[in-house]
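Summary for the steering committee. One of the milestones for this cycle was to obtain a three-dimensional model of the protein with NAP bound, which we needed before selecting residues for the alanine scan. The sequence and ligand used are listed below.
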Amino acid sequence: MMTAVKETRMLLGGEWVNRKETITVRDPQDNTIFTTVPKASVKDALYAIETAKEGAKISAKLSVFERMNIIHKAVQYIEDNKERYAQTIATEGSKTITEARAEVKRCMDTMRLSAEEARRMHGETIPFGQREGGDNRIGYYYHFPVGIVAAITPFNDPLNLVAHKVGPAIASGNAIIVKPASLTPVSAILLAEALDYAGLPRKVLQVITGNGGEIGDVLVTHPAVRLVSFTGGFETGEAIAKKAGLKKISMELGSNSPAIVLEDADVMDAVQSCVAGAFGAVGQNCLGVQRIYVKEAVYHAFVEQFVAEAKKYIVGDKRSDETMMGPLIHEKEAIRIEKLVDEAVALGATILTGGERDGAFYMPTVLENVPRGAQIIEEEVFGPVVSIFKIDSVEEAIELANDVNYGLQAGIFTKNIDIAFKAIHDLEVGGVIVNDSSDYRVDAMPFGGVKGSGIGREGVKFAMEDMTEKKVVQFKL
Ligand code: NAP
């Protein structure tokens, strides 16, 4: 007996719609079909923008009280359905069920934070008397919404990274059109379901599923879209930045984050932080630890314990509570990583553990002796591979850490406060973490990178700054 494939609809122009042409969403673990979503056309994208114009007017008129209530009600809906949300993330994506449950919790935090920030979005009075003759004026500035935000999101945190755009957009009175990753579109649709249930006026939020290469240009180049908020890879981000024209852009891109371990560090603590940072979410994490610079005196102890911990990783069925690492998002990603490791080995690198692929699975892999210039350290691997280097001084570690085109976050393990401050000042990144790896974020902090890691900052309050403009009001007395 043939079982019908489940169809999931998209939210376009205030209606839940399907389309004859669809995208098949598969479970990367075994390639089984999870569902289909509509394949939005260029016409659909244009229609989304036209209806978002109405949505922007409706959204701007919602009182702060109404925005907060709607968001809180949506959070309650997610709480009531949290296992379904987690199962969706763990089916369409490559996270384990444990990681998926944690992401649902993070999403609820992000949305709650958005509701709270709505009440804190206030301006300031301006002391006009600072200019000679200006003391007969009184005034202030306040924030008003940009209008229409186009949000383009990646596969690796398919719910919370969408919440990081949708929550702030609604809290600041905008209309938002989300174009989620084609590999993991259903989690974004579930977020829209929660807000729809909570009474968000239709047309304020749209989620259109479709191929980024086909409908992306419409969203990015259309003059009515006032902010393109993108999270994804460097190449896509750069292409979008070139096309966007005169509008705001926010770019949350990738990295190949460094960790520095000095001789006074608690080595076992550093090992555990770096192992979790390197292999969490199969290394498909923009903050993931990719390069570790270890002072000579503790190098052997660090490497020995790191390899032992990596070998303990339970890789397998992502739906099992015991599993620590599932498959990559697609077999072709695992093949790409295999090639990067093979290339590094051909250049002289040594595999200390891992280096094996089975379909979409790639074992936690530790390399040493990777020569400078090898792609595996220059580029973002976005997989469970980490390279460890012996260094003579903190200066050398900082120089090597900075010698790439990325700069999202970095970690340094030391008890020496002077050295910690040197690293804080000299590391070219958006965030430095002392005594932990690069892989730590709370959703309220300014989050983003320098160089090829992006432009601007997310973290609800900071995203809301991007999603608003300041208007000055003056009264001449
Ligand atoms: P990606 O390939 O760049 O895709 C991201 C999104 O862009 C998808 O929705 C994709 O749609 C869309 N897209 C593709 N081509 C486009 C075009 N020409 N115009 C407009 N949109 C287009 O990234 P990914 O592989 O999904 O995600 C992994 C990357 O995201 C990594 O580099 C990671 O570091 C980065 N990331 C950064 C952060 C951060 O906060 N800094 C967080 C998470 C992830 P389709 O899926 O339809 O192709």
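Key point for the committee: The mean pLDDT is 97.
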